[in-house]
């Protein structure tokens, strides 16, 4: 009778759990599998303390109840060496074990660490080349670049089974979080910064990706599809994107970047090869100086806000001229005025550094800067 009552009491709990998606504990990628094992091991270690404490609490309350006259009553008791050893030794041992597991797992599952295995039984073959996927978190959608294939997609990505994936992740506006539960743990996407994640999918299938960090009104619908394909299936997906997609240039990106919700899947058969770098350096808009160029100017000594603005304008103008003439180089001195065509660098290496005569106690004038787009 007691057993039947317990079964009846558990029915609501089982009904609730039946609707849960336990993908975190049953993933399809090796990194996520290792993370699931870490959760299990940590939980079991903590339960080694929690379960006995809960049991003994209930047992003491029942055994030393007022009605139990057979229980030993010792009001003068105040110390037990054996009890003290158990109380302190068991938690200490578990803390040491958790610390060791945490230290090892933190290094082994470092998202910046390239993979050395496909799963527990297979190392990564020496000739395997990782698939690079560049991820941009937009408001409120995901943009994926495949530089190896020259394509881009919105709210859908794919990867071959058992091929390592290197994610390069950034954001266009606010901080976000890139998360595919079946593949690996979440990692943040931040504007003007790049984070990395290495992972591998071991099973074919369609999996869900999402944003794990609140980023505004459209956050709850900021989801995408991740497909695990065989090598042939992945090639077919690439061919479909190239066949059905349009071109993604700067103008198309600036329209896509505008906030929107429930964005449908989009394919881009050709993507500007420098667009991801421009997004990362926050200079996708025409005429805007890139952060890496600004940092280079500052590193070389800088010349104030006016110089930065002049250099940004000159860089944009020279890029347009260079595109028309088939070249990408734009050279100008630190004063913010274009370099004259008849000016030649003083050193013969051609690195744009001007060797000045050793005057004024050996101090040399600052060299003009040369910036290549």
TrEMBL record:
Residues 340-351 have a biased composition (Basic and acidic residues). GO terms for biological process: ATP synthesis coupled electron transport. Residues 16-113 form the Cytochrome oxidase subunit II transmembrane region profile domain. Residues 128-240 form the Cytochrome oxidase subunit II copper A binding domain. GO terms for molecular function: copper ion binding; cytochrome bo3 ubiquinol oxidase activity; cytochrome-c oxidase activity; oxidoreductase activity, acting on diphenols and related substances as donors, oxygen as acceptor. One of its GO terms (cellular component) is plasma membrane. PROSITE patterns: COX2_CUA, COX2_TM, PROKAR_LIPOPROTEIN. Its main location: membrane. It is a multi-pass membrane protein. Residues 324-373 are annotated as: Disordered. The chain crosses the membrane at residues 38-62, 83-104. It comes from the Bacteria. Residues 352-362 have a biased composition (Polar residues). Keywords: Cell membrane, Electron transport, Lipoprotein, Membrane, Oxidoreductase, Palmitate, Respiratory chain, Signal, Transmembrane, Transmembrane helix, Transport. This is Ubiquinol oxidase subunit 2. It comes from Rhizobium soli.
